[in-house]
């Protein structure tokens, strides 16, 4: 009898909790919908009233990146083009010049050339600014566009116009694209101390670090 009582009580308790659980889920959904309505309200206001014309895709991508950035410094959204660039980098080789570049005030700035690459052999230096590629102005464009122009079929020629701090006039540098075999790990021995430098991440980083330790 007592066992039946507890079973019945448990059943009643479970049934009693169902409305509360359903109500809580509904409240969460309602709050989410209100937040989404607020987002769409801001989205429409920017589209209609911002001082410059804006692209819907750019706004949505910016919102997604903002959402992920609020989680931690390492989460980000990659569209198809960004993913392809990342895959090229992590694969460890591509047809290009061997430059690490960034965007600074609308200009493409060289962070550093990779050792023994076409850019390194042609004399491109860290701190150089690239203003033209094959005579076409790239100032004011995007970094992705500039990188895409610099990459290409190995053996094809390319001309960069360089502005170098300390020199009065821009100058041209010509070279041929080549397969860039990135060396994400370098090592050397200084005063009987082994120094391993991890320059970037690629598919071969683990094996390269192991080789550096063994070697």
UniProtKB/TrEMBL annotation:
Q: List the SMART domains hit by this protein, alphabetically.
A: PDZ
Q: Which GO terms describe its biological process?
A: proteolysis; signal transduction
Q: Which residues form the signal peptide?
A: none
Task: Mark the transmembrane ranges.
Answer: none
Do you know which PROSITE patterns this protein is assigned to?
PDZ
Query: What is this enzyme's class at the first EC digit?
Result: hydrolase
One example of the protein's molecular function in GO is: serine-type endopeptidase activity
Q: Which GO terms describe its cellular component?
A: outer membrane-bounded periplasmic space
> Which keywords annotate this record?
Hydrolase, Protease, Serine protease
The EC code for this enzyme is 3.4.21.102
Q: Which family does it belong to?
A: Belongs to the peptidase S41A family.
For this entry, the protein name equals Carboxyl-terminal protease
- What organism does the UniProt record list as the source? hydrothermal vent metagenome
């Amino acid at each position: 009898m007592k066992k039946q009582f507890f079973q019945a009580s448990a059943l009643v308790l479970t049934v009693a909790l169902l409305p509360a659980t359903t109500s809580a889920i509904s409240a969460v959904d309602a709050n989410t919908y209100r937040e989404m309505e607020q987002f769409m309200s801001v989205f429409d206001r920017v589209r209609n009233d911002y001082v410059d014309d804006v692209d819907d895709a750019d706004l949505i991508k910016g919102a997604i990146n903002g959402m992920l950035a609020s989680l931690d410094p390492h989460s980000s959204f990659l569209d198809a083009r960004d993913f392809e660039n990342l895959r090229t980098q992590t694969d460890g080789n591509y047809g290009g010049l061997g430059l690490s570049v960034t965007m600074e005030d609308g200009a493409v700035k060289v962070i550093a050339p990779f050792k023994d690459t076409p850019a390194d052999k042609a004399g491109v230096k860290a701190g150089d600014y690239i203003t033209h590629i094959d005579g076409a102005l790239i100032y004011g464009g995007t970094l992705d566009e500039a990188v895409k122009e610099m990459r290409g079929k190995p053996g094809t020629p390319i001309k960069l116009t360089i502005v170098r701090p300390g020199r009065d006039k821009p100058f041209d540098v010509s070279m041929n694209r080549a397969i860039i075999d990135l060396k994400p790990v370098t090592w050397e021995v200084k005063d009987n101390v082994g120094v391993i430098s991890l320059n970037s991440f690629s598919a071969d980083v683990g094996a390269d670090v192991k080789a550096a330790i063994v070697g």
